[in-house]
Design a protein that fits this description.
single chain; 640 residues; alpha+beta; Metallo-beta-lactamase, Chain A; Immunoglobulin-like; 3 domains; seven-stranded mixed beta sheet; 15 helices; binds zinc ion
């Protein structure tokens, strides 16, 4: 393939000042004809005379600085992959006559962004690719490049390799000889020696590690091409590629080895009387008192099975359902228990909002609402960390138990002579010869790393309560002793340092938590002329106070009040920047509009990182149909 057409720049660059944030810095010189401009991603400028080809485009701010390095014409922008931080400025390119080349396998995310968003899986989501960081506005594409293709431009020959891992659909690594050195533009395959910009992008699907494996294979392919320099989308120029890649591969492997779990057979479907007063059915534990009163810890039990349980175990009254967490395979039975049996719903404060208004969140395994636009069931009693309650002569203690997800609760009680900790999905039954530990680590679930957080927080609680029985939602009762509990604790203790080795951030949580910046609510229904109240929430995972500048980006005719907010967030705290978004009253809104906000946090421009969905309320029936279809098609997996 030959990339030919040139565009005339200087006059048009001035027009771009209006749409890009702009930056005072100059492109940094790597060699005579190779520069890097640090923007929402690294934008590389490859020169040939006074012409240039750009590898990725970021916000487009680079255009203001090209004259300073003797570039008058830009022929092409070549994208390594579809993430917004690579291409958020592309809107301007067609008007400037600059052509756009993208990975052929990702072409549709650029060309039909609006179409892709209409089919985005928001509920019962177990498949995380394509991810939510794709463009929200369609971009005109002039050429799709298939990995393996070569092309010539300005007397240079570019080779391409598939870049898989950071994205599932292959992106591109481009190799060329520039100023006597073989350079590799590696996108986000690697950040710096041993490090990645994000780990969560390697998780393509719930519980699985193919993305990490694919990332390793793509890195090995780059290594085999023997480049002299690695030029990443985020991170530093690496002049010892072999070592940089070897370290990164080793660090990814360490994470995968720590996370990989091999459960014994899932026992969640057995109707089992495991103790005189405790029944295990699917993911629920049902505690039945002698007088026929029952307590459900979780329920995704279908109505006929509940009827069977009532008959088999002489249940006269179901008093309450207490939730371990919000996942669809633990809460699907709530409407039956509430409406037919009059049970109360009790939930820990960490998950109440998700249960009642799931559409406000973009997290996996949602599905408690009957329809996307409707609220989920109302929580009748909000439980707090450390609460105690008495029921049928037993004393229960509840605690935040944030293992599999931050929005998770555990419960302790002494029943039938055992000290039981009801652990929800924060553990599983190990096979003989394997350790007792936390269950899966799916970044999108929000598994926080650090002292007192996530699985380590659970390990600390287990040490404190010293139970002799772990009640695991999918696996039943697992006998424990101090040695077993210590296995769990020691495993959990390794999580943060292992991720810290591979994640190139001030705190590894930034690389494992894809929602550290997010809109709240995530999704609303609205109509033309209305005002939508929203907030951009930022979790400052770092150990220092940080400033954020947040600026919503909206369709023509919409307004944000204020246009921009500057907030300060204390270390380890969550900050919020609130906005009133006024929808144009002059034009009807489309079926779905996706807005974004540009976020600069702690001095780093993350570009249009968070997005929010605004759906047309008058098209509700269409969305309802769509939701029911998706809910039906949702895969039932053994452990969610
Ligand atoms: Zn990326
Ligand atoms: Zn779960």
């Amino acid at each position: 393939m030959r990339l030919g057409l040139n565009a005339w720049l200087p006059l048009l660059a001035a027009a771009l000042l209006l749409v890009t944030p702009g930056s005072a810095q100059m492109p940094e010189k790597i060699s005579d004809n190779l520069f890097v401009y640090r923007d929402t991603c690294n934008v590389y400028v490859v020169k040939s005379g006074d012409e240039a080809i750009l590898i990725d485009f970021g916000s487009g701010g680079v255009l203001e600085h090209l004259a300073e390095i003797g570039v008058n014409k830009v022929s092409w922008v070549l994208h390594t992959h579809y993430h917004r931080d690579q291409c958020q400025g592309d809107d301007a390119l067609a008007g400037l006559g600059i052509k756009v080349a993208v990975p052929a396998d990702q072409r549709r995310y650029f060309e039909d962004a609006e179409g892709a968003w209409k089919h985005m899986q928001l509920y019962h989501n177990y498949s995380f690719k394509p991810d939510f960081f794709e463009p929200t506005r369609s971009i005109k594409v002039d050429e799709g490049i298939t990995p393996g293709e070569t092309f010539e431009w300005g007397g240079l020959r570019f080779e391409t390799l598939p870049s898989v891992g950071h994205t599932k659909d292959p992106g591109l690594t481009c190799l060329a000889e520039v100023d006597g050195k073989k350079v590799a533009f590696t996108g986000d395959l690697i950040h710096s020696p041993g490090k990645l910009w994000t780990y969560y992008d390697l998780q393509w699907r719930y519980n699985q590690h193919q993305g990490a494996q694919a990332g390793i294979e793509s890195l090995e392919a780059v290594k085999n091409a023997k480049p002299d320099l690695l030029l990443p989308s985020h991170g530093v120029v690496m002049d010892n590629p072999q070592e940089a890649i070897d370290q990164t591969v080793a660090h990814i492997r360490e994470v995968v080895d720590l996370l990989r779990w091999q459960p014994a057979h899932d026992q969640s479907k057995r109707n089992q009387q495991i103790f005189p007063h405790v029944v295990h059915q699917r993911t629920s534990f049902i505690i039945v008192a002698d007088d026929g009163h029952a307590l459900f810890y979780d329920s995704s039990i279908p109505e006929p099975e509940v009827e069977q349980l009532v008959r088999d175990h002489g249940i006269k009254q179901i008093d309450m359902i207490i939730l371990s967490h919000y996942h669809d395979d633990h809460v699907g039975g709530i409407p039956t228990l509430k409406e037919k049996y009059g049970a109360e719903l009790w939930a820990h404060e960490s998950m109440v909002d998700i249960i009642e208004t799931p559409y406000r969140y973009n997290i996996p395994c949602l599905g408690v609402g009957r329809y996307p636009d409707e609220a989920g069931p109302k929580v009748d009693r909000v439980l707090k960390d450390g609460d105690t309650f008495e029921w049928e002569g037993w004393t229960f203690k509840v605690f935040h138990f944030p293992g599999q997800t931050e929005y998770h609760m555990g419960m302790y009680a002494e029943i039938d002579g055992h000290r039981m900790v009801f652990m929800g999905d924060s553990t599983y039954r190990p096979q003989p010869g394997t350790i007792f530990r936390g269950e899966n680590f799916n970044c999108r679930n929000y598994c926080r790393l650090g002292e007192g957080a996530g699985y380590l927080g659970c390990g600390e609680i287990l040490k404190e309560y010293n139970p002799d029985m772990a009640m695991a939602a999918h696996f039943g009762a697992i006998p424990l002793d101090e040695k077993r509990i210590d296995e769990y604790y020691q495993w959990a203790k390794k999580l943060e340092p292992t991720f810290a080795k591979v994640v190139a951030r001030s705190d590894p949580n930034f690389g494992t938590d894809p929602n550290w910046v997010s809109f709240y609510p995530y999704r609303v229904f609205a109509e033309a002329g209305e005002t939508v109240v929203t907030e951009v929430r930022i979790r400052n995972h770092s150990d220092h106070q940080a400033e954020a500048v947040v600026r919503p980006l909206l369709p023509a005719g919409w307004r944000s009040n204020p246009e921009e907010r500057r907030i300060t967030i204390a270390a380890k705290e969550t900050g919020g920047a609130d906005f009133r978004i006024v929808l144009s009253k002059d034009a009807p809104i489309s079926l779905r509009t996706v807005i974004t906000a540009n976020v600069v946090f702690d001095g780093i421009d993350y570009g249009e990182f968070p997005e929010m969905i605004i759906d047309n309320r008058s098209e509700k029936d269409k969305w309802r149909e769509w939701y029911l279809e998706k809910a039906k098609a949702a895969r039932i997996s053994p452990s969610r």
